[in-house]
C-alpha cells in the first residue's frame, strides 16, 4: 500500500498532465479540422448549397477509410510519420499526432450528422431572403446544430481519453504509460485500480459538464 501511494505521488501528476496535453491539443485539432471536413461533406451533399458528388464521395471515402482502422493499427502505422516530424515518436507530442488524425474523421461524421438535423425549411427561408452561404452557416446551421455539436465534442474528448491510454502503452507518456510501467510490469494492482477510478471520475465530470452546456443552449 505504501509503495502504491509512493508511486502515485511521484508519477501521477506528470501522467495526468501528459494525458491532458495529448487530449486537449488533439481535441482542438480534431474539432476544428473535423468541423471543416463536416461542412465540406454537408455542403457538397445538400441540394440547397453546392452539391458535388465527386468531391463528397472522395472526402467521404477518406474519412471512412481512416475511421475503419482500429486505433491500435492506426497508431502503429503513424509511428513513422511522427518519427519523420518529431525525430522521436515516443513522446506526448508524438501521441498528439496519432490522436489528432483519429479525431478528425471521428468528429467530422458527428458534426455532419448534427448539421443534417437542421430543418431544411429554415435553410430555404434563409436562402429566400438572400442570405449568403457564410451567413446561413453561422446564423442558421451552427445555432440550430449547437446542442448536438456540443455533445459530439464531449463524445470526442471522452474517446480521446481512452485512446490516449492506448497511446501511452507504446511509450508516449500519460496515464496509459504509467499503467503499463507500474500497474502491469511491476504488478502494482493498486496503481491500476487508482488509474481506473481516476479515469471514470474524469469522464463522468466531462460528461456532466457537456450535458449541462448542451441543455443550456438547446432552443
Automatic annotation (TrEMBL):
Give the species. Answer: Bifidobacterium ruminantium
Q: Indicate yes or no for the key word Transport.
A: yes
- Its main subcellular localisation, reduced to a broad class, is membrane
Where it sits in the cell: the answer is: Cell membrane
Q: Provide the membrane topology annotation.
A: Multi-pass membrane protein
Instruction: Note whether Cell membrane occurs among the keywords.
Output: yes
Query: What is this protein's record name?
Result: Methionine ABC transporter, binding protein
One Pfam family for this entry, by name? BPD_transp_1
Report the sequence similarity comment from the record.
Belongs to the binding-protein-dependent transport system permease family.
| One Gene Ontology cellular component annotation held by this UniProt entry | plasma membrane
Q: GO biological process: what's one of them? A: D-methionine transmembrane transport
Family matches, as PROSITE patterns: ABC_TM1
Q: Where in the numbering of this chain does the ABC transmembrane type-1 domain appear?
A: 16-210
Sorted keywords for this record are: Cell membrane, Membrane, Transmembrane, Transmembrane helix, Transport
Where does the chain cross the membrane?
Answer: 20-43, 55-78, 149-170, 190-210
Amino acid at each position: 500500500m505504501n509503495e502504491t501511494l509512493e508511486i502515485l505521488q511521484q508519477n501521477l501528476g506528470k501522467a495526468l498532465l501528459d494525458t491532458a496535453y495529448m487530449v486537449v491539443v488533439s481535441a482542438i485539432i480534431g474539432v476544428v479540422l473535423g468541423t471543416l471536413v463536416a461542412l465540406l461533406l454537408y455542403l457538397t451533399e445538400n441540394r440547397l448549397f453546392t452539391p458535388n458528388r465527386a468531391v463528397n464521395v472522395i472526402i467521404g471515402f477518406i474519412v471512412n477509410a481512416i475511421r475503419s482502422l482500429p486505433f491500435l493499427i492506426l497508431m502503429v502505422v503513424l509511428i513513422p510519420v511522427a518519427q519523420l516530424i518529431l525525430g522521436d515518436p515516443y513522446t506526448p507530442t508524438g501521441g498528439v499526432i496519432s490522436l489528432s488524425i483519429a479525431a478528425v474523421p471521428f468528429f467530422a461524421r458527428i458534426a455532419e450528422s448534427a448539421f443534417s438535423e437542421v430543418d431544411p425549411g429554415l435553410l430555404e427561408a434563409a436562402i429566400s431572403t438572400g442570405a449568403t452561404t457564410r451567413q446561413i452557416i453561422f446564423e442558421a446551421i451552427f445555432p440550430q446544430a449547437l446542442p448536438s455539436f456540443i455533445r459530439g465534442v464531449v463524445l470526442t474528448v471522452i474517446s480521446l481519453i481512452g485512446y490516449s491510454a492506448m497511446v501511452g502503452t507504446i511509450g508516449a507518456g500519460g496515464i496509459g504509460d504509467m499503467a503499463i510501467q507500474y500497474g502491469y510490469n511491476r504488478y502494482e494492482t493498486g496503481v491500476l485500480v487508482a488509474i481506473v477510478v481516476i479515469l471514470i471520475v474524469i469522464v463522468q465530470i466531462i460528461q456532466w459538464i457537456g450535458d449541462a452546456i448542451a441543455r443550456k443552449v438547446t432552443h
